[in-house]
Write a structure and sequence with these properties.
The chain has a seven-stranded mixed sheet with strand order 3-2-1-4-5-7-6, with helices on both faces. It is α/β, with parallel strands linked by helices and about 220 residues long. It folds into two domains: about 35 residues, no CATH class; about 170 residues, Vaccinia Virus protein VP39 (Rossmann fold). The chain contains ten helices and seven strands. The structure holds S-adenosylmethionine. The site of S-adenosylmethionine has 15 residues, from strand 2.
């Protein structure tokens, strides 16, 4: 058999995703398929690739174990295309009032809103265009702040200093040096922990992926 043309290939992948969405009864897969159709960007593939999904699934499961699922008002910083927000909102183990997905790149907004279409209409997913260094976290009064983009911050301690004491935090970094925008990679979990010293540590671990290791801490500021 010869190779498929690009339109036929797209048709085939679309059929597979539609079938999976029926089999798993998953609005998440439906939203991903529709978003891929509307915003065919390489970056969207990166945001949903195996390493990213492994890292996010690790986060979701570890967060469930440490919180028993009661999350309330959640802020996801550097939320990119809203993948983590979607995974949390579609996970029925969690009790979530609302997720605010924050990003400094305005081009993320339309993609994140599409990927979270199931939860935009009921107001449980919102996108906020902002620099996380500029947010006033005291009046925002989040129950949980997630920052999986610590490797992207030139001055991570300055951001950390703005987070109110006692706030529940989930943070990830990695040792994936040499990638554009990765200005704050670390060499070890100990180095990461020193950048964001928690008052109460609930979880700390590392996940070896094919090209790099991801580090995560969960606890109270
Ligand atoms: C490549 S993405 C996500 C990387 C992260 N390791 C993850 O998997 O979630 C990093 C995101 O952080 C955003 N970002 C970087 N600096 C930021 C800042 N100061 N405030 C808000 N968003 C920021 C970027 O625009 C980008 O969408």
């Amino acid at each position: 058999m010869g190779r498929l043309s690009t339109p036929d290939l797209e048709h085939m992948y679309s059929d597979i995703l539609k079938g999976l969405s029926v089999h798993f009864d998953s609005l998440l897969i439906t939203d991903i398929l529709e978003t891929a159709r509307r915003f065919p960007r390489l970056q969207l593939g990166y945001a949903l690739n195996r390493n990213q999904m492994t890292s996010k699934t690790w986060l979701v499961d570890s967060l469930y174990q440490t919180s028993q699922g009661r999350l309330g008002r959640v802020c996801v910083l550097g939320g990119w295309y809203g993948v983590l927000g979607a995974l949390l909102l579609h996970d029925h183990r969690f009790d979530i009032e609302r997720i605010e997905s924050v990003d400094i790149d305005p081009s993320c907004e339309e993609v994140a809103l599409s990927l979270n279409r199931s939860h935009v209409d009921d107001g449980r997913f919102v996108f906020r265009f902002a620099d996380m260094h500029e947010i006033d976290y005291v009046p925002a009064d989040y129950d949980l702040i997630v920052n999986t983009s610590c490797e992207h911050l030139g001055d991570l301690p300055a951001w950390y200093a703005k987070v109110p004491e006692g706030t529940l935090l989930v943070m990830q970094s990695n040792n994936y040096f040499g990638i554009e925008g990765h200005v704050n990679c670390v060499n070890s979990l100990a180095e990461f922990k020193a950048q964001v010293p928690l008052a109460e540590e609930l979880f700390a671990g590392e996940l070896a992926l094919k090209k790099y290791t991801r580090y995560m801490v969960i606890g109270r500021r």
